[in-house]
Write a structure and sequence with these properties.
Length: about 130
């Protein structure tokens, strides 16, 4: 049996600001933004090429305070990923190389609520 991780709840204070950051700056795809009632709104965004999305909203049981999410993305080329984030206006760290092995290079950024993202280079995941 396969067990796939497909959704991670992301606690934020301002839903529209979060959409703008993740869609327009980070480059995630906005899958849906559905207002079910005045007390329930569900937003889902997915990184390009990912099978896992983030979800945020009101009335969806996100109990963690904004700024407590720690998540990690994986890319085949850390230099290209950092360049893309910088060009989109994301305040991203310099590349940190912890070792020369595949998987040893990272950049980091926070969303407007302080949720922390790491981006790890794993060259072996490059698409053919």
């Amino acid at each position: 049996m396969n067990w796939t991780l497909e959704v991670v709840k992301c606690p934020v204070t301002d839903l529209d600001r979060a959409i703008t950051f993740y869609r327009d700056k980070v480059g995630f795809n906005l899958d849906f933004d559905t207002k079910i009632s005045d007390s329930m709104r569900v937003i889902q965004l997915t990184p390009p090429g990912s099978g896992c999305s983030i979800v945020m909203g009101i009335g969806i049981g996100v109990d963690s305070p904004p700024g407590t999410l720690q998540a990690q993305l994986v890319v085949p080329d850390i230099e290209a990923a950092r360049k893309e984030l910088v060009e989109r206006g994301v305040d991203v760290s310099d590349i940190k190389r912890f070792n020369e092995d595949d998987g040893g290079a990272f950049v980091f950024f926070d969303d407007p609520d302080g949720n922390n993202w790491g981006v790890q280079e794993i060259r072996a995941r490059a698409q053919s």
